[in-house]
Amino acid sequence: CRWKFNDNIMSKRLFTALSVVLSMLHSCQYEQIVEENQGRMSESPQQVSFKVSMVPPSKSSLMPDEDVIHRVSVYAYESGELAAFSSGEDVMELKLDLVSGHVYEVYALANMPDCPQPQIQYEDDFRSKVFEIDVFSSLDEVVPMSWASSVSVGPGTTEVEMSLERLVAKIDFSIEKGLLDYMQVRSVRLRQCPSVLQPFRAGGSRVDSKDDVVDGDYASGSDIETLNSGGPIRLYSLENCQGLLLPSNQDPWLKIPERMHDGKADCCTYLEVGCSFPESDEYGVYCGDVTDCFFIGEDSTSDFTVRRNTIQNLSLVTTEEGLGRISWRVDASD
């Protein structure tokens, strides 16, 4: 007994099967092409504008215009790598091409000398970037500023507001002469001010080496007249967030270098005030020159922070008892 195959039937079945397979392949390829096109459409960047605003916060030797912006640079990072960059003097024309549905870490720098260009490819390198600042040439006219935020881009995202922070602190200083009203102020100067900035450092920018501090802002001639007339003056310092270095101290007279360790005393900003007393019996036993020094911070005993975009009010209260103390804070050796 033999099996007999009908070649015509087998050929028709084979042709039908091939037709179904080819049809399925065509359908799958079409769906794949549609999905790829839709994916490409969703990945197409859209323009997002970045709008600049400010965070709300007598003249010194520095007279910067605190709200003027000469140049802004904006950097967008995704997954740790640079995705978009824009820089310009026209703050109304800052636009980045960003993709809807993506989240970016966006950073802005304004009035920063030698602002880095897009070659800083990695976000970690950008965040750790140290900027060298010539205090007098850089701060004479404008104030450096920064901003950072996560930006989630949606289909309707067309504008993002950047609230720039000034990277300097204002030091408002006055003197209460009390019974020593015959004392005259000769000079006022900030010492050990930062000459470097790390705008995006966790905890704030600070100096880590004595090689990165300089003599800073000082009182002008008109400032000295204002102080001797009982008025306040204003000085400027770059941010220097040294933090709480004497946590258990409760005595302002012990906020001195001798109590600090690991070279911190050489990195903290302080104010130096030079005064003089006329040589006359009419004014008592004090005569000659006296220099008073005190560290700046968020309190008078333990903190050494000079924080960005803040006003720190300092007042020196002079007393006969204080002048009689032997301390780093008061030097009457002249």
Task: Calculate Rg over CA atoms.
Answer: 33 Å
Strand content: 35-45%
Chain-averaged pLDDT: 81
State the assembly state of the protein chains: single chain
What is the CA-CA span between the terminal residues? 133 Å
| Number of DSSP helical runs | 5
- Uncertain segments: 1-41
Q: In order across it, which strands form the biggest sheet?
A: 3-2-5-7-8-1-4
Helix content: 10-25%
Task: List the keywords.
single chain; 334 residues; alpha+beta; 7-stranded mixed β-sheet; 4-stranded antiparallel β-sheet; 20 strands; 18% helix; 36% strand; elongated; disordered N terminus
Notes on the protein architecture:
The chain has 334 residues and is an alpha+beta fold. 18% of the residues lie in helices and 36% in strands. It has helices at 7-43, 123-127, 135-139, 221-228, 320-323; strands spanning 45-54, 72-78, 81-88, 95-99, 103-110, 131-132, 145-152, 159-166, 168-176, 184-191, 193-194, 196-197, 213-214, 233-238, 240-244, 270-277, 288-295, 303-306, 311-317, 330-331. It starts with 6 loop residues before the first helix and ends with a strand. Mean pLDDT is 81; it is low at 1-41.
